[in-house]
Write a structure and sequence with these properties.
The chain is an alpha+beta fold. The chain is about 25% helix and about 30% strand. The protein has a 7-stranded mixed beta sheet with strand order 3-2-4-1-5-6-7.
């Protein structure tokens, strides 16, 4: 059985980091990941994406000086907050693995120039399986539709990465899971 199987529940979109703070205070679980989406100042069409991890509250991480949210916060943007829901107390390495596969796939899908992350753009050196669920901020239902450029439509619902010694790695994905 594989050890790197993760279910990520994403909540959002939030319009500002203060909304994230208020939401986090109401939750009984700790969020470990976050996604940012928006345009840089003076950009007309080029949208940027960023995936990060935090061992603190996501709000505190977004409030750090020189954080990438400063590049897009004066424009319409969205924030998604994620937690590994199938692991009670995820380790830093587990969170990093999920962050790495999401950044790597984002880089592959939208292009390196549209991902604000400066590092972590290469795939991990081990097998990893990620299932993404996109929940409304209330946590009562899953998003059925979102904007075309929203991270929930860009990042596949299922990501599987197979690491092979001979550098013949494989990435499989299922863009959107369909309800039967």
């Amino acid at each position: 059985m594989e050890k790197n199987v993760f279910l990520v529940k994403w909540y959002g979109p939030f319009e500002c980091k203060e909304d994230v703070r208020d939401w986090e205070q109401e939750q009984s679980f700790k969020s470990s990941l976050y996604l940012l989406h928006g345009k840089r100042r003076y950009a007309k069409t080029n949208e940027k994406y960023y995936c990060g991890m935090s061992e603190r509250n996501v709000y505190e991480r977004l409030s750090d000086k020189k954080h990438h949210i400063e590049e897009i916060q004066n424009r319409p943007h969205s924030i998604y907050v994620g937690c590994l829901s199938n692991i009670k107390n995820p380790t830093r390495n587990q969170i990093k693995l999920v962050e790495k596969i999401i950044i790597s796939s984002l880089t592959y899908i939208v292009g390196e120039e549209n991902v604000l992350n400066a590092t972590n753009k290469l795939f991990p050196a081990e097998n990893i399986f990620v299932i993404n669920e996109w929940w409304k901020t209330t946590g009562e239902s899953i998003w059925k539709r979102q904007r075309k450029n929203a991270p929930s439509n860009i990042i596949p619902d299922v990501l599987t990465f197979h690491y092979k010694e001979n550098n013949d790695n494989e990435l499989f994905c299922c863009k959107k899971l369909k309800q039967l």
